[in-house]
Design a protein that fits this description.
single chain; six-stranded mixed sheet; five-stranded mixed sheet; 10 helices
Length: 338
């Protein structure tokens, strides 16, 4: 992988990626990294210039040139009238990184997962990586506020990546040469690429399997209890709240699920946890009974009439029992009691 200026490019290579020189941002650094992960642009040279005579001969150009045209392999987002978004319900205007990910991301995700591009798993992971990683890059680069009054966040930001990339630019009183800037841009590509790769690995190898387990629990909820309002996770330690909310929305289930049962393998007991009104909220759809809140062990056994109780939190959002059967009974009574 190399980053050059036109003046140092002595020989035209078969394929070259173009972006602007000067101060750089997260979006073009990440966009160049992503392109180098595709079959066509793998390990190709990045040429940094604003000279249109240089850019016009390059195979693909991002974040400069004032043109967005996938047929011409031109991916700028600064021009007047540009309104492109990712689609699939996302409304944040795209940066150059978002444009590259929209058109080439599925290829990158599929290759990393070792699955066909049209695989449902690839589609789900491609969308998840955009939501939880890429969209923040687009929003920050385009100056989109994450919050609009008291409404939910317009995009998720789990990283300060854009700021850290900005800090890699040569200082105002340091070496301002093209060589110094190109060297720092290469570091920016490596930084953004490392974090993208970590995100892709997480969402494909951890997040996606967890979603599948929650889906399995949803499908089997009537076997757990005829009410269909209690789910049992098949594997301990599986993150479930966000997946449950998304799957309920996708399947138009409303807020049907009230309690989730799972094993605490460290304590060798079982837990019954309430479902929050939304992920991250401390408010439950249906708390455990008020009369149980803050009680433990035999006192809780006596109050509930259920043997093997361990505790119920003072706010009623979680409780424990020594057995699965005990937690199930706690959930069932939790549905009926105030």
């Amino acid at each position: 992988m190399s980053v050059t200026s036109p003046s140092t490019t002595t020989k035209r290579k078969m394929v070259q990626i173009g972006t602007h020189n000067g101060s750089f941002h997260c979006d073009e650094a990440l966009g160049c990294y992503l392109l180098q992960k595709t079959d066509r642009f793998k390990d190709t040279e990045v040429v940094r210039s604003r000279d249109q005579e240089v850019l016009k001969d390059l195979d693909i150009v991002i974040d400069v040139g004032g043109v967005y045209d996938p047929k011409l392999e031109r991916y700028d987002h600064h021009q007047r009238g540009f309104t492109e978004v990712f689609g699939h319900g996302f409304v944040t205007k795209l940066s150059s990184a978002g444009l590259v990910y929209k058109h080439y991301g599925k290829e990158i995700v599929a290759a990393a997962m070792g699955q066909p591009r049209d695989s449902p798993a690839v589609e789900t992971t491609w969308l998840a990586v955009y939501k939880y990683f890429m969209e923040a890059v687009d929003g920050i680069d385009n100056g989109v506020n994450q919050y609009e009054s008291d409404k939910p966040a317009r995009y998720v930001s789990n990283t300060n990546l854009s700021s850290r990339v900005g800090n890699l630019n040569p200082p105002w009183n340091g070496d301002q040469s093209e060589e110094a800037s190109n060297a720092q841009f290469q570091k920016a590509m490596q930084l953004t690429g490392h974090e993208f790769s970590d995100a892709l690995e997480y969402y494909s190898n951890s997040w996606l399997p967890a979603r599948a387990l929650v889906q399995e629990a949803l499908e089997g909820r009537h076997k757990v209890d005829p009410s269909g309002q209690i789910i049992k996770l098949p594997v301990a330690g599986c993150p479930w709240k966000e997946h449950l909310a998304q799957l309920e929305e996708e399947q138009k289930l409303g807020d049907a699920i009230k309690f989730c049962l799972y094993e605490d393998t460290r304590a060798h007991t079982w837990r019954v946890q309430t479902v929050p009104v939304e992920p991250g909220s401390f408010q439950s759809r249906k708390a455990l009974p008020k009369a149980w809140m803050g009680l433990r062990d035999k006192e809780l056994d006596a109050e509930s009439g259920i043997s093997g109780c361990v505790f119920v939190h003072a706010s009623g959002f979680i409780g424990g029992n020594k057995t699965y059967e005990g937690t199930l009974e706690m959930a069932k009574q939790g549905l009926a009691l105030p």
